[in-house]
Design brief:
Layout (H helix, E strand, L loop, with lengths): L6 H13 L26 E7 L4 E7 L3 E2 L2 E2 L39 E6 L5 E7 L32 E2 L2 E2 L5 E2 L3 E2 L29 E2 L2 E2 L6 E2 L3 E2 L29 E2 L2 E2 L6 E2 L3 E2 L3 E3 L17 E4 L6 E2 L17 E5 L6 E10 L5 E11 L9 E6 L2 E7 L11 E6 L8 E10 L7 E12 L1
């Protein structure tokens, strides 16, 4: 006989059937129409099952609640947000989206490199460049040098021609002492380059004028051509400077005598102290020996010939004879004895200016190479001119005009002019020739 189910069991069975469409917890189809169901997974809805046998009847009930978008019941776990290309809350980045960040902007001390995004949406700094350890004596990534280690770097490798490169701050090259001289640009250690003096002039450097020049290595400015009026040195564009007159006198400026000076600006001569007069040869008696031996005007002497005054009857001595007229004074002329010859005269030189001039020839010289033969012209014992057988012009026949300023003796007093030759020859006679003597002075 079949045993009848009790009423409570039937009630529970009815509830189980109402919550699921089949007895094994299937839960119906997951639709978006809002129906309740067990879902398709193992975590949704309410499941009831009843198992019956000949001896045991059991009933189990399990209840859980799940909510998902669009329906209630089997959601199947939480949704993925990394990577989805969008930076969500708690993420640094997402895929290729770095939100504008770089290795240097994320505040971790990197100096460069390529920032990327890890699978967990945090920054991947694997390719970022860590800051170099400058000063450790090793050239690290990002460093050009470190201390004395220059890694082959020179001024030349950095595009300069000269100079000394060093390792600077941040272990980068310091080219502050590198330069290229000759390009017209003042660089680093250079003081100038060609005509580029950085705006400096002789005037800006405290001089009165002149021109600067640049040293060949561009490391210094040459101020030698700058002028400083008052230092007694004539420097361009100065005409004179203090007592330095460049050899100019009142006579060279067209006056007969006086004292030439330089103006205060060193730009011109001051001729206020110069004088003018009629210049004439004040040696009015026998100035060129043309009155013959002992013809007046001159005191004459010779060790071997009584007088040095000669005409062509004495011979020519390798020279050309007289410069003018028929006579001249010949000093020397023998290899058989020592010869000392002199002509002299005393004369009053008027105040003003005075110039002594004469024609001189040295056609022949003793060839021993020793300067033993002397020719001397003096006034009051002060030598105006002196030469010897070693004179490089010796052996070139022909007179030349020699001129000497004797204005210091132009004071109205009596002064003695002496011309003397002394020869000591054994092989070749040394011949000093003089003619046409003039003492030009105010008259």
């Amino acid at each position: 006989m079949r045993r009848r189910l009790s009423a409570p069991l039937l009630f529970l069975f009815a509830i189980g059937c109402a919550e699921g469409s089949d007895l094994d917890g299937g839960g119906g189809s997951p639709s978006d129409d809002g129906n309740q169901g067990a879902g398709s997974g193992d975590g949704g809805g309410t499941t009831s099952s009843t198992k019956s046998s000949s001896s045991v009847t059991s009933t189990s009930t399990a209840t859980s609640t799940s909510t998902s978008t669009g329906n209630m019941g089997g959601g199947g776990g939480s949704g993925e947000t990394c990577p989805n290309g969008t930076i969500d809350a708690g993420e640094d980045c997402d895929g290729a989206n770095l939100n504008g960040a770089t290795c240097t902007s994320i505040g971790q001390g990197f100096t460069g490199g390529a920032l990327s995004c890890a699978d967990d949406c945090t920054y991947d700094t694997t390719e970022c460049i860590a800051p170099p350890d400058c000063g450790n004596g090793m050239i690290d990534a990002g460093e050009q040098c470190d201390g004395a280690l220059l890694n082959g770097g020179t001024c030349q490798t950095q595009g300069f021609a000269s100079g000394t490169i060093t390792c600077g701050s941040g272990c980068q090259y310091n080219t502050g002492q590198c330069y290229t001289c000759g390009n017209g640009q003042i660089e680093n250690a250079e003081e100038c380059d060609g005509t580029n003096f950085g705006g400096m002039t002789c005037l800006s450097l405290g001089h009165d004028g002149g021109l600067l020049s640049c040293a060949a290595n561009c490391l210094s400015i040459n101020q030698n051509a700058c002028s400083d009026c008052g230092d007694n040195v004539i420097e361009s564009p100065e005409v004179c400077d203090g007592a330095a007159l460049g050899g100019q006198t009142c006579q060279s400026q067209g006056f007969s005598g006086g004292t030439l000076t330089c103006n205060a600006a060193c730009s011109a001569f001051n001729t206020a102290g110069c004088t003018s007069c009629t210049i004439t040869n004040i040696l009015t008696v026998n100035p060129g020996f043309d009155s013959g031996p002992f013809g007046g005007g001159w005191a004459e002497s010779s060790t071997n010939f009584q007088t040095p005054v000669c005409n062509t009857g004495c011979g020519l001595g390798g020279g050309t004879g007289p410069h003018a007229g028929a006579y001249w004074a010949w000093f020397g002329g023998t290899t058989t004895a020592d010869e000392i010859a002199t002509v002299s005269r005393s004369v009053v030189i008027p105040a003003g200016m005075a110039t002594l001039r004469f024609q001189f020839d040295l056609p022949s010289c003793e060839s021993t190479g020793v300067a033993s033969d002397l020719f001397v012209v003096s006034i009051d014992g002060t030598i105006l001119y002196q030469t010897s057988n070693a004179d490089p012009t010796c052996g070139q026949p022909g007179y030349q005009l020699l001129t000497f300023d004797v204005t210091p003796w132009a004071n109205g007093g009596i002064h003695n002019i002496q011309i003397q030759g002394a020869t000591f020859d054994y092989f070749t006679a040394t011949n000093f020739m003089v003619d046409s003597v003039e003492l030009m002075a105010c008259q």
